[in-house]
Design a protein that fits this description.
The chain is an alpha/beta fold. It has a domain of 287 residues: Metal-dependent hydrolases (TIM Barrel). The chain is built from twelve helices and 15 strands. It starts with a helix and ends with a helix.
Length: 432
């Protein structure tokens, strides 16, 4: 065989390989072009975990975050949604709600009408994950799971009440014989670790017994405790609570409450934040808003914020007796902190990545690649607005967060103004 023939064969082999490589790349790119299910185009992405705070596109594939980058080609997407001028954030986490909705007319919150349906109030406020704060205990959690959690589109996680019957009523919540750390820990560790993220202590009239039982359960299950502290007469010391009874990572809810009697405040009567509050936060105590129908006052929140104290977590304490008062919904509570002067970046941090860390769920509250595609798109409306606290006093503001689009696990579940929809005229033309 001549050298020329050998060279020709070698060239043909290389050329053939090149053709195959080009064909493979073309096939890959063609397949890749069909992979993006939803592309959010041109929005201002705020993702605190990944330190993103700029205009980016977000691609969703099969219910997961596939890519967060600039100028992702629209030709690669089945559906493109123009979100220019809007804020794109991880799905909002409301870390304090009551959604054990039921018809036990003798119950306060557990399986009661005071609790609300999660899906009815979550998506429209930009919320994709809620954490029920102690509505159920180990005795009735299974009913809660079957009745509510398993049937909700909203992701429902749980703080298990240290009281076995949960929030059946104020008298039942005083029963120390029903505060069983071992049973609560067993329910978490052995049965439902993927759903139960912590322990709740609430509405106790005595000393620190209930808190200490909750912390014991938290230690056994290796989960945090959240405490609603303040129905003691005379009031128990919150400094003792923060520094002696709770652990770093445990949570204090209703941070900006003023009243009822028996609840010590974080801001004194002279409008000064008590020094140990800053020390407690530095120690690792997590301060949760837990607005509710009776636990958020401007006379606490405004001076605290002005003196440099900010909550770690923004939440609503959503239930039937709070949603139609000053609280309204999660986006309204977030807007209150925006109005007080908190940056939009910090508002999103306190409503996504901070609560995700507080409940030890780093898979939530972010837009990392391969994370479940829970996304909220916000508009910031400009105008003249008034924000009520629970004492029916108002703080005036000129901006308000409005959820335009909520995506849960890659599916659009709330679309305020039809951003994701074709016009009816185009739809009509396509059918002809």
């Amino acid at each position: 065989m001549s050298n020329f023939t050998k060279s020709l064969q070698a060239f043909s082999t290389r050329y053939h390989s090149l053709i195959l490589l080009i064909a493979c790349l073309w096939s890959f790119n063609t397949a890749h072009a069909q992979q993006i299910d939803i592309l959010l185009k041109g929005g201002h992405v705020i993702d605190p975990k990944n330190k993103i705070d700029e205009q980016m596109d977000v691609a969703i594939v099969k219910g997961k975050i596939a890519q967060v980058a600039k100028d992702i080609p629209a030709s690669n997407a089945k559906q493109v949604i123009d979100v220019k001028g809007l804020y794109v954030t991880p799905g909002i986490i409301d870390m304090h709600v009551h959604v054990f909705n039921g018809n036990d007319l003798g119950s306060y919150i557990a399986n009661a009408q005071t609790s609300v349906s999660a899906d009815a109030f979550s998506f429209r406020a930009g919320v994709t994950t809620v954490v029920d704060a102690g509505s159920s205990g180990w005795r009735n959690f299974r009913q809660f799971k079957q009745q509510t959690i398993d049937k909700s589109q909203t992701r429902v996680l749980v703080f298990l009440n240290i009281v076995g019957n949960g929030m059946l009523g104020r008298f039942e919540e005083q029963d120390t014989s029903d505060m069983n750390p071992q049973q609560a820990a067993y329910m978490i560790n052995k049965l439902f670790p993927e759903i139960i993220v912590g322990i709740k202590s609430a509405h106790y009239w005595g000393g620190f017994t209930q808190v200490d039982r909750a912390v014991q359960a938290g230690k056994l299950a290796n989960v945090p405790v959240i405490v609603d502290f303040g129905e003691h007469n005379p009031p128990n010391s919150i400094e003792s609570l923060f520094m002696e009874h709770l652990r770093p990572g445990d949570m204090f809810t209703h941070t900006f409450s003023y009243g009822p009697a028996g609840r010590e405040t974080i801001v004194d009567e002279n409008g000064k934040v008590k020094p140990f509050v800053f020390a407690a936060q530095k120690r690792g105590i997590v301060f949760d808003v837990g607005h509710g129908g009776g636990a958020f006052s401007w006379r606490q929140a405004v001076p605290a914020f002005q003196q440099g104290f900010k909550p770690n977590v923004i939440s609503t304490d959503l239930h039937a007796e709070s949603m139609n008062s000053g609280m309204k919904d999660m986006s309204n509570v977030m807007s209150k902190f925006l109005t007080m002067g908190m940056s939009i970046q910090d508002v999103i941090l306190c409503s996504t990545w901070n609560p995700a860390n507080a409940i030890n769920r780093p898979d939530l509250g972010n837009l990392s690649v391969n994370a479940e595609a829970d996304i909220t798109v916000f508009n910031i409306r400009k105008g003249d607005f008034g924000f009520l606290d629970i004492r029916k006093t108002v703080l005036k503001g000129n901006q308000k967060l409005e959820p335009e689009l909520t995506i849960r696990a890659g599916k659009i579940v709330w679309d305020l103004n039809g951003l994701s929809a074709p016009s009816w005229e185009d739809e009509l033309k396509n059918k002809k």
